[in-house]
Write a structure and sequence with these properties.
This protein is an alpha+beta fold. The chain has a single domain (33-138), classed as 3-Layer(aba) Sandwich (Aminopeptidase). It has three helices and six strands; from the N terminus they run αβββαβαββ. It has helices at residues 9-27, 78-92, 108-113; strands spanning 37-45, 48-58, 61-69, 97-103, 117-123, 131-138. The protein has a six-stranded mixed beta sheet. The radius of gyration is 18 Å and the shape is globular.
Length: 140
């Protein structure tokens, strides 16, 4: 009989990764390297952090988990510089796709301006009245 129980993330996550690794071995002739690493870039004005971007690399994809710029620095191309830098580094790592998401009150137009395409939307996510947009950009 199967029983379900709550457990610590640190204990379960490596076991689930082993299952995924086995699926990859069963599926691919040559298993792609996972390389679960982070790309973390801060934008500074002197010593002051004014924005930043965090990307999670896995296989040949980078998912931008966070990109933010302080209000006083918006409209000064800081966000564009951060996005362009992660794209540059992604190309150097032979990344195929960059994915990210944003909400309807955030930066939908910004990402479209930078060549990102919507591949999905969810209305009322994470709360009623807000739409979440899922974007991707193919680099090669």
């Amino acid at each position: 009989m199967i029983n379900l129980k709550e457990m610590a993330y640190e204990k379960l996550e490596p076991e689930i990764e082993k299952i995924f690794d086995q699926q990859n071995e069963d599926t691919f002739d040559q298993v792609p390297e996972r390389n679960a690493e982070k790309i973390v870039i801060g934008a500074y004005n002197g010593k002051d952090l004014v924005g930043g971007i965090i990307g999670n690399k896995q296989y040949q994809n980078i998912h931008v988990a966070m990109l933010a710029v302080k209000d006083d620095y918006r409209g000064q191309s800081v966000g564009s510089m951060l996005l362009e830098e992660i794209e540059k580094r992604s190309r150097e790592m032979d990344i195929i796709h960059i994915t990210l998401s944003t909400k309807s009150y955030q930066a939908e137009g910004f990402y479209k301006k930078h060549g990102y395409e919507v591949f999905g939307t969810l209305e009322d996510m994470p709360i009623k009245g807000v739409t979440k947009f899922y974007f991707h950009k193919r680099l090669n």
